[in-house]
Amino acid sequence: MTDNDPRFHGDARSRSLFTLVSELPQQLIALLKAEIAHLKAEFAEKAKHAGVGIGLFVVAAVLGFFALGSLVAAAILGIAVALPGWLAALIVVVALLLIAAILALIGISSFKKMNGVAPEKTINSIKEDSEALKGLGRYDN
Length: 141
Prior knowledge:
With 141 residues, the protein is an all-alpha fold. The chain contains three helices and no strands. The chain crosses the membrane at residues 54-80, 86-106.
């Protein structure tokens, strides 16, 4: 961005210190705008790739759901060879409910281990940065 701007070229020694200092806010604003534009472009590209990935994941999940239904039907039909059909279906349903209950208990246990949803490490890092800017605390990292 600053490569094409004539304000940022030329011999800095030929300009006064006052001129250089007065141009500093403009240069910082230009740099900030360039960084924001770069951030937007990068985010747009990543969002595009994420959208494609999410779409493919949804299609895979739908196909997996149909495959699971077919697997359940095959299990029922396989058990129905030796037992009545209603009993085969009941056995498969009970087995699926047991698996679902176990997975739900594991999921609940996982949520209980979580200490909230706030990004505590990031918040602490920002607090440390603000203290360092104020000249307080440690800033040896």
